[in-house]
TrEMBL record:
It holds the Pfam family HAD. The keyword Metal-binding applies. The lineage of its organism: unclassified sequences, metagenomes, ecological metagenomes. PANTHER family: PHOSPHATASE RV3661-RELATED, PHOSPHOSERINE PHOSPHATASE. One of its GO terms (molecular function) is metal ion binding. PROSITE patterns: PROKAR_LIPOPROTEIN. This is Phosphoserine phosphatase. Gene3D superfamilies: HAD superfamily/HAD-like (3.40.50.1000). Keywords: Hydrolase, Magnesium, Metal-binding. InterPro entries: HAD-like_SerB, HAD-like_sf, HAD_sf.
Length: 309
């Protein structure tokens, strides 16, 4: 009899604990809090988006570009500055690839592949550490805080967060996964086959640049996102792949020779959510990329007060 009462008491206790946990879960406040640094219009759009997707039954996926979208890119991409600093210390590493690369546009598909081929022979862990070291030294204050807040809000509302970048996957995985508190495998970039822990020059496709970013979503995430955010013409196809919110950060007003309108005008015409975030270079930034190797300097963005009201 005592044994039976003991079992009943234990069962009652378990149900009580489960009930308390359920109550706590129900009491978590997932209500939208305006994101500091975004305009009232942007916050209203985000609040509506979260309300509209609240009862989504499938996977809730949000995809972000890396440089210029969640991470500042002035005066240079972290991928370039880290690599060229490494090159100064290793002048004899893959000279043919290196000399080819510095003559190419640093946003071209051949260049972003060469950036990974150049590092072939280095361990994946060393490459991850290289990226994190550069981040801590020069970019630790360049994570866009409004985007960090947005990502945190999305996670609280059940979203998977992914980064799709044309920068080297290995170099960005470690520091971005820590900063954004997402799985390291959710950072997808230019990658090559890893053999026995060593990076090779066998590039894995699709190349996440331009159309390849959309194909990377299809290949590696394997579902259609509810939100996609980018910052440049190279993100256009993946932004348009979103079945929900289409978002762009600091869109360029420049019209390239092969285009008829700027990505900023295209975004306005198609009712994308446009946000502006400060991205200015630090005074003591070394700029090895441009000073020693002639790599172009990325555009500075200074936000006007009127743009965040």
């Amino acid at each position: 009899m005592k044994k039976l009462l003991s079992i009943r008491s234990l069962t009652l206790y378990i149900f009580l604990i489960i009930g308390l946990i359920a109550c706590q879960s129900n009491n978590i406040d997932n209500s939208f809090k305006p994101i500091k640094g975004f305009s009232e219009k942007a916050n209203n759009q985000l609040e509506k988006f979260l309300q509209d997707t609240k009862n989504e039954t499938g996977r809730k996926i949000a995809v972000f570009d890396g440089d210029g979208t969640v991470l500042g890119q002035t005066p240079h991409y972290l991928a370039d500055e880290a690599m060229y600093q490494y090159a100064v210390k290793h002048p004899d590493l893959h000279p043919k690839i290196f000399n080819e690369m510095i003559k190419q546009s640093n946003v071209s598909i051949p260049y972003v592949q060469n950036r990974v081929k150049y590092i072939a022979g280095v361990s994946l862990q060393e490459y991850r550490d290289l990226g994190e070291k550069c981040f801590k030294k020069y970019y630790s204050n360049k994570i866009f805080e409004p985007m960090r807040s947005l990502i945190s809000t999305l996670k609280q509302n059940g979203f998977e967060i992914w980064i799709i970048t044309a920068s080297p996957e290995g170099m960005y995985q470690q520091f971005l996964s820590k900063e954004l508190k997402i799985p390291i495998t959710h950072i997808v970039g230019i990658k090559s086959v890893i053999k026995e822990g060593i990076i090779t020059d066998e590039i894995i496709k699709p190349i996440p640049q331009d159309h390849g970013k959309k194909w990377a979503i299809e290949s590696f995430i394997q579902d259609v996102p509810l939100l996609v955010a980018g910052n440049s013409r190279g993100d256009k196809e993946m932004i348009e792949f979103s079945k929900g919110l289409k978002m762009i950060v600091n869109p360029d007003e420049h019209i390239a020779p092969d285009q008829t309108e700027s990505i900023a005008d295209y975004a306005k015409k198609n009712d994308w959510l446009i946000v502006r975030i400060n991205d200015v270079p630090d005074k003591d930034f070394p700029s090895i990329s441009s000073k020693k190797f002639g790599i172009r300097i990325n555009k500075t963005h200074k936000v006007k007060e009127s743009e965040i009201k």
